[in-house]
């Protein structure tokens, strides 16, 4: 079955371009487009797409608030949201992740990366561009979390601590499996356990927790 995607961007040429790239994929279908956050939220609630692809800076209701309304804490049956940004908008990315986004892309990402991010979000995973993961999360870890990091409901095992660090560095499940010499299913089991112990909704929140508890040191 095709992954159903809603695209929102206030720049028509960007919005159209993203939709064309996604529609060209054999297993992705763009079911709606929106020029601003308010329209995006309305369409998302009506169409219930598998993935919402949102620009952060949009008029009226920005991508951060739109994400919070569709995927934020306390939202029943939240939707998967991936936000798009550029290097000079790091602070907005962090806010979007806090609002419940599963991951982010840079606007210069190619068609393959865009497709991968959509599929990852649809499968309950999250694609964080590895090249900017440490830079983004590390920069904001230095400012301190908005609230004290939650204590795990149960102590993490040695293997979970290992996987926590790889997630925080932006590794994919396949990369983690190769790096730690374990099976892909074992990686998924440990990540599910981490989410349960940390009260995290996705691997983005696992990564932020690692930075906020200084398990991964900020750099750059």
Largest pleated sheet: 5 strands, parallel
What is the share of helical residues? 40-55%
Shape call: globular
Can you list the strand order of the major beta sheet?
A: 2-1-3-4-5
What is the CA-CA span between the terminal residues? 42 Å
**Which structural class do the helices and strands define?**
alpha/beta
Total DSSP helices? 10
Overview of the structural elements:
50% of the residues lie in helices and 13% in strands. With 220 residues, it is an alpha/beta fold. The protein has 2 domains: 125 residues, Response regulator (Rossmann fold, 3-Layer(aba) Sandwich); 66 residues, Arc Repressor Mutant, subunit A, CATH 1.10.10. It has a 5-stranded parallel beta sheet with strand order 2-1-3-4-5, with helices on both faces. Strand 1, helix 1 and strand 2 form a beta-alpha-beta unit. Helix 2 runs parallel beside helix 3, helix 8 crosses helix 9 and helix 9 crosses helix 10. It is globular. The model has no long low-confidence stretch (mean pLDDT 84). Pfam families: GerE, Response_reg.
């Amino acid at each position: 079955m095709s992954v159903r995607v809603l695209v929102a961007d206030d720049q028509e040429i960007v919005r159209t371009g993203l939709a064309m790239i996604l529609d060209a994929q054999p297993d992705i279908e763009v079911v709606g487009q929106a020029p601003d956050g308010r329209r995006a939220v309305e369409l998302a609630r009506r169409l219930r797409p598998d993935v919402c692809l949102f620009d952060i800076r949009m008029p009226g209701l920005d991508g951060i608030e739109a994400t919070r309304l569709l995927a934020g804490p306390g939202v029943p049956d939240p939707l998967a949201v991936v936000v798009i940004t550029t290097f000079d908008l790091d602070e907005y990315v962090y806010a979007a992740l806090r609002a419940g986004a599963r991951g982010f892309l840079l606007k210069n990402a190619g068609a393959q990366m865009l497709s991968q991010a959509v599929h990852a979000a649809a499968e309950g995973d999250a694609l964080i561009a590895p090249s900017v993961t440490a830079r983004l999360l590390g920069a904001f870890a230095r400012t301190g979390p908005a609230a004290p990091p939650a204590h795990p409901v149960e102590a993490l095992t040695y293997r979970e601590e290992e996987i926590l660090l790889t997630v925080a560095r932006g590794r994919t499940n396949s990369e983690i499996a190769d790096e730690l010499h374990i099976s892909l299913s074992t990686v998924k089991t440990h990540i599910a356990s981490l989410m349960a112990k940390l009260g995290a909704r996705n691997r983005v929140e696992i990564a932020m927790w690692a930075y906020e508890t200084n398990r991964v040191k900020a750099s750059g």
